[in-house]
Amino acid sequence: MKYYVIDAFTDKLFAGNPAAVCLLQEPLTDEVMASIAREMNLSETAFVLWENDAWRLRWFTPTVEVPLCGHGTLATARALREAGIVTDDEVYFHSLSGDLAARYQGDWIELDFPSLPPTPAPVPEAVLDALRIKTAPRWSGVNDHDYWLLDLGSAAAVRALTPDRTATMAIDLPGIIVTGAGDAPYDFTSRFFAPADGIFEDPVTGSAHAALTPYWSNVLGRTDFLAFQASSRGGILKVRLAGDRVLIAGETVVVAAGDLRIP
């Protein structure tokens, strides 16, 4: 089975968010896909299969299957183009989060995701304690995917955050987004933690921007943004709110390609 390792949301090797992409020739069991994801040991491994006249796309962390993965989708679109399988300007995927589209735009690939806006809610004290946040966020809320969003006010506050890793990983939440107004040229900055999925800090997270984009659109009164995710690897995203959809664009770099043996 052909596979790729691709860095997403970057134009440089060993930056952005790495994902493995497996180009399936036939269906695999959940157990085999989970084993492959553990073997790859990246934040996400994507599995894509042409079945019943459509691309079926699933994503696994080393511990669980997840319903939506931005960088894994971006990497999959690049892998299908790299392998010469998709030559059109668009590719569509069926996923656990519904139908997703990816559009090729020069060096960038644009994803079409559902908008997942957070609604106001007081953040659990355990989250504040684990992230070592001493003052109340400017705003907090949670969306339908149980992603919490905390606005700390500034990019400096987001970068300065030093969470307690053990305490964070003990929280049974799939997503914790911390954000703040960006330093130029960026409109906003964020970081993302996914303890319930076995991920302490995700390098760059497309699905988090399905929540961040409608939030910042409401705050700033705009729909188009240049965003930066301030992990150690860093990542740049162009995002746009389009009604009940969020368009998320990023660049990609192919790191490796090879053949994977299947039992």
From TrEMBL:
Domain of life: Bacteria
Gene3D superfamilies: Diaminopimelate Epimerase, Chain A, domain 1
Entry annotation: catalytic residues: 44
Keywords associated with the record: Isomerase
Annotated InterPro entries: Phenazine_PhzF-like
Entries under Pfam families matching the protein: PhzC-PhzF
Gene Ontology molecular function terms on file: isomerase activity
Secretion signal, residue range per the UniProt entry: none
One annotated Gene Ontology cellular component of this protein: cytoplasm
Family to which this protein belongs: Belongs to the PhzF family.
Listed PANTHER family: PHENAZINE BIOSYNTHESIS PROTEIN, PHENAZINE BIOSYNTHESIS-LIKE DOMAIN-CONTAINING PROTEIN
Protein's name according to its UniProt entry: PhzF family phenazine biosynthesis protein
Source organism of the structure: Candidatus Cryosericum terrychapinii
